[in-house]
Amino acid sequence: MARIIAGVGTSHTPAIGAAVDNGKVAEPYWAPLFKGYEPAKAWMARTRPDVVIMVYNDHVNAFDFKIIPTFALGCADEFPIADEGWGPRPVPPVKGYPQLAAHLVQSLVLDEFDITIVNEMQVDHGLTVPMTLLYGTPQAWPCRVIPLAVNVIQYPAPTGHRCYMLGKAIAKAVESWNEDLNVVIFGTGGMSHQIQGPRAGLVNTPFDQAFLDGLSRDPERLVRIQPLEYLREAGAEAIELVMWLIMRGALGEKVEEVHRFYHVPASSTAVGNIILESR
Ligand code: DHB
Ligand code: FE
């Protein structure tokens, strides 16, 4: 049986990828951030999941404004790295798992989640930066990755409750796959940030810390946060945090928080990282 053994929440700030790709990790601005991710990297090196389900959002790279799926599951063999305007990041291509992805789609649709099947897709910083933060800079990624792209770019984004319920359905789908696999699910984006307009640069640390506490101890509270509340309290782009609730929903009731890190600033973003193991 396949099983979800843990969840990772992490920001995906594009400047973090640029810092790694351009050799700036030891610079004073970046050093504390990368030091803060060392325990998470060590955890990943010990845990070595067979498959990562990467819940992330595309930033108008794979999808333009012609078609905007709410939940899109990557069913391809391989996902090339998107060119976001300065060339594709120099990271390995992302290998998928089409058979398991097809099984997830089947189980989720029969469970009444209307998933868009994506057979060809480039992946942007939303996916590659979390990979870099947890795996560093290997020649090839040591696991297969199933991307789940969530629309948090164009109003309306799905509610936190919908995301949480989808996470539960993902766990059920994984558990009905008859192969001995360890799966880690990521929820990415956030934490508080606003990257445009008069409030650009907004960070709400108490909101972020309470969100991290809630993931660990009271996810039902987080599920009640309404979309406008994310925007008002923690900035327009904080809506990305609903993706962390898919991750949390997939873990079941009992979790143990094994790592937490929080850091400001990184570009316009408050960076958060949490690791929860299923118990
Ligand atoms: C920034 C953060 C994001 O999540 C993103 O997608 C783009 C930019 C930033 O902090 O600059
Ligand atoms: Fe983003």
Descriptors for this entry?
279 residues; alpha/beta; Protocatechuate 4,5-dioxygenase, Chain B; two-stranded antiparallel sheet; binds 3,4-dihydroxybenzoic acid; binds fe (iii) ion
Secondary structure blueprint with pairings:
Elements: E1 2-10, H1 14-21, H2 31-36, H3 38-47, E2 51-56, E3 71-74, E4 78-79, E5 94-95, H4 98-110, E6 116-118, H5 125-135, E7 144-150, H6 160-175, E8 181-188, H7 205-217, H8 219-223, H9 227-234, H10 242-249, E9 255-266, E10 269-278
This protein binds 3,4-dihydroxybenzoic acid (DHB) and fe (iii) ion.
3,4-dihydroxybenzoic acid (DHB) binds near residues 14 and 189.
Describe the protein's architecture and organization.
- It contains 10 helices and 10 strands.
- The chain has 279 residues and is of the alpha/beta class.
- The chain has one domain: Protocatechuate 4,5-dioxygenase, Chain B, CATH 3.40.830.10.
- The strands form 2 sheets. An 8-stranded mixed beta sheet has the order 6-3-7-2-8-1-10-9, sandwiched between helices. It has a two-stranded antiparallel ribbon with strand order 4-5.
- The longest helix has 16 residues, at 160-175.
- It is globular.
- The chain starts with a strand and ends with a strand.
- Bound molecules: 3,4-dihydroxybenzoic acid and fe (iii) ion (FE).
- 3,4-dihydroxybenzoic acid (DHB) binds next to helix 1.
